[in-house]
Amino acid sequence: xxxxxxxxxxxxxxxxxxxxxxxxxxxxxxxxxxxxxxxxxxxxxxxxxxxxxxxxxxxxxxxxxxxxxxxxxxxxxxxxxxxxxxxxxxxxxxxxxxxxxxxxxxxxxxxxxxxxxxxxxxxxxxxxxxxxxxxxxxxxxxxxxxxxxxxxxxxxxxxxxxxxxxxxxxxxxxxxxxxxxxxxxxxxxxxxxxxxxxx
Length: 199
Known about the structure:
2 domains; 7 helices; 11% strand; 199 residues; alpha+beta; Aspartate Aminotransferase, domain 1
């Protein structure tokens, strides 16, 4: 028999009104597809565990996300990102109906039953020191606190900011990300500070 976690109840209750029915729908479908699933909180958002990680869901200001740990191996892989194979979920219409979602949960649980592992790409060589682009270097020179924070970050954390900025598809997006980077760095935050475990 699976378990529920009161922290997940609290998470849903404190989420934005638009997010509540989405999270409830996901939670119900996950339990229907895998009755032995266990709920937990990791990185401050709900995860579902069954013989290992199964899937997770999260609510943000204007959208939700839902993703399977081994989503790329499902029979009908959903489209989206690694964290949310269904993209930005803003309403129940962005998700499959209960029957389809439950079927995907069953497939994901079967992968864990079979002990299927995800193959991670191997790095051929370690990455060198992070090299900030010119616009980031210029912005850091105007903010001593942000500059000090950036220099104190590990190369991998520096690279997270650099890649986020350089992967922007439009100039306005790049400028917005650059401004956000300086703001977060001046607050002493890493790129993925929202998902870091609180101490």
